[in-house]
Structure to design on (532 residues):
């Protein structure tokens, strides 16, 4: 009986369609206001893996925060399956640049935190679910470790398990690998593709690394700054699992990089 | 173990020097005391005083009375200080009023509350408690406030995205995240409470119970230097024990979890 419920929980693959309609967002600074997002519209399909790329100040993280419900747009709307986003919710989990794990809890305690907000599960079932996700990110051996005992890559794995555990429809990742070394990052590229294949989530992944975006995304959305706008979109149809050192992948990222350079150069003229 | 022995040797040496200066090491030819026992009694006399008065129950009784005052006063200080500190960290209006008041009153050494307490409450337990609470409250309030403010905002953001409401975030995120600061604040508060109580007991004689501080005071009145020094040892001992029993385990746990040990 308990087993059935667990299977049901783990074998549910909720995804969602996301749409952003004419979103504008200003930030007031001492030197007046800065337009972080200028009339941005975008549709993301169920189960799509979309990467937002662009230089700093292009509004990619701002848009992610709006979708997460942590920020509100000045005008325009962000909708999930047609319902406007008004605040954070369990259907969207965020993975931050810093791991943001809680140092007063051990690894499994951290994974349980989000699960505890989820009703209709007993604590025993939550524990089983947490163990499953730790297993999925290959961290099951470290369930009772303290956070400070883990390496940077291991911490981000735990953070990934924590965001996956409540089984959200959408996973939002804000430059999650930017603080890691190249070797660790490459291993995580494989893992995150594996998780996406297994868990069938809608993923939005923010990065300033074009190569990383091409390696992971089914679509790369290119942003340009001042004001923050979507400049161009590139579908990525390379076979998976992708290796970041692959030739075709390098070619495509070169193409995107030159597009990026083209409009940043045009702007500085 | 080696380090412990090293420390032990140091303190043994200190006692030996003391014994030598007060004529207790006759076998080394040091049979003359450099000072009159009225100024500096020998370690043997002090030990004898402590031994006798421990056996006849006077010192244990006064320790009990003092610790009771300390724990009650400290507990009240915490119960008021921690929530007020939390409010002060959360609401600007509280920090601009109560926070500033706390900052001002913390600058006032707690012994300065004694005259006021004597006039308001007379020679009573209430006067002593009042001084202890005034000594504890403000420092606990301020360190709780500072602790809550130094919690990285990303923790609360992460909790919000996981669907935690404001109350849940406060209790299960902000509070544990600020635990290292709050515990060191509680420890500081304890040190202040202890100092306040000693000051109060020396100045305020209360019929309802003879505390350690009062023994110190009467040691001076009766010109018993061995009592003065003996009681000073007791005061040091109580302070150290409280630190070890109350705070060391909590701090060790925090260090282990946060990974902040110095090793």
């Amino acid at each position: 009986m308990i087993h059935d419920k667990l299977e049901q929980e783990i074998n549910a693959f909720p995804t969602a369609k996301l749409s952003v309609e004419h979103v504008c967002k200003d930030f007031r600074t001492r030197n007046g206001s800065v337009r972080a997002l200028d009339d941005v519209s975008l549709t993301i399909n169920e189960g799509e893996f979309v990467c937002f790329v662009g230089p700093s100040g292009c509004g990619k993280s701002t848009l992610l925060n709006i979708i997460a419900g942590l920020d509100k747009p000045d005008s325009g709307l962000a909708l999930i399956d047609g319902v406007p986003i008004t605040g954070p919710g369990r259907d969207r989990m965020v993975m931050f640049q810093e791991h943001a794990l809680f140092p007063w809890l051990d690894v499994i305690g951290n994974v349980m935190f989000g699960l505890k907000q989820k009703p209709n599960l007993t604590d025993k079932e939550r524990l089983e679910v947490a163990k499953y996700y730790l297993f999925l990110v290959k961290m099951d051996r470290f369930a009772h470790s303290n956070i400070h005992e883990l390496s940077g890559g291991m911490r981000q794995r735990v953070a990934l398990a924590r965001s996956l555990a409540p089984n959200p429809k959408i996973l939002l990742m804000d430059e999650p690998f930017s603080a890691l070394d190249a070797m660790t990052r490459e291993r995580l590229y494989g893992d995150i593709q594996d998780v996406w294949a297994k868990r069938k989530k809608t993923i939005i992944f923010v990065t300033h690394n074009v190569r990383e975006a091409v390696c992971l995304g089914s679509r790369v959305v290119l942003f340009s700054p001042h004001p923050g706008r979507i400049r161009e979109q590139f579908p990525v149809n390379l076979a998976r699992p992708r290796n970041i050192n692959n030739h075709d992948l390098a070619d495509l990222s070169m193409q995107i990089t030159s597009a990026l350079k083209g409009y940043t150069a045009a702007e500085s003229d | 173990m080696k380090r412990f022995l090293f420390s032990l040797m140091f303190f043994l040496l200190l006692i030996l020097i003391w014994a030598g200066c007060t004529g207790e090491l006759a076998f080394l030819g040091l049979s003359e005391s450099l000072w009159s026992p009225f100024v500096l009694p020998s370690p043997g006399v002090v030990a004898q005083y402590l031994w006798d008065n421990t056996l006849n129950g006077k010192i244990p009784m006064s320790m009990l009375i003092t610790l009771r005052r300390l724990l009650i006063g400290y507990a009240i200080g915490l119960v008021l200080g921690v929530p007020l500190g939390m409010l002060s960290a959360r609401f600007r209006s509280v920090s601009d009023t109560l926070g500033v008041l706390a900052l001002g009153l913390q600058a006032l050494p707690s012994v300065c509350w004694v005259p006021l307490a004597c006039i308001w409450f007379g020679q009573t337990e209430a006067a002593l408690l009042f001084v202890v609470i005034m000594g504890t409250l403000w420092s606990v309030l301020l360190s709780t406030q500072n602790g809550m403010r130094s919690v990285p905002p990303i923790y609360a953001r992460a909790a919000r995205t996981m669907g935690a409401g404001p109350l849940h975030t406060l209790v299960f995120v902000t509070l544990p995240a600020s635990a290292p600061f709050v515990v060191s604040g509680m420890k500081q508060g304890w040190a202040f409470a202890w100092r306040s109580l000693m000051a109060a007991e020396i100045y305020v004689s209360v019929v309802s119970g003879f505390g350690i501080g009062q023994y110190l005071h009467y040691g001076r009145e009766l010109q018993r230097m061995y009592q003065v020094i003996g009681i000073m040892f007791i005061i040091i001992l109580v302070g150290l024990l409280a630190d070890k029993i109350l705070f060391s385990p909590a701090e060790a746990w925090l260090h282990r979890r946060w990974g902040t040990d110095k090793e």
Observations:
- The first helix of chain B runs from residue 2 to 21.
- The two ends of chain B are 16 Å apart (CA to CA).
- Residues 85 and 145 of chain B are 4 Å apart (CA to CA).
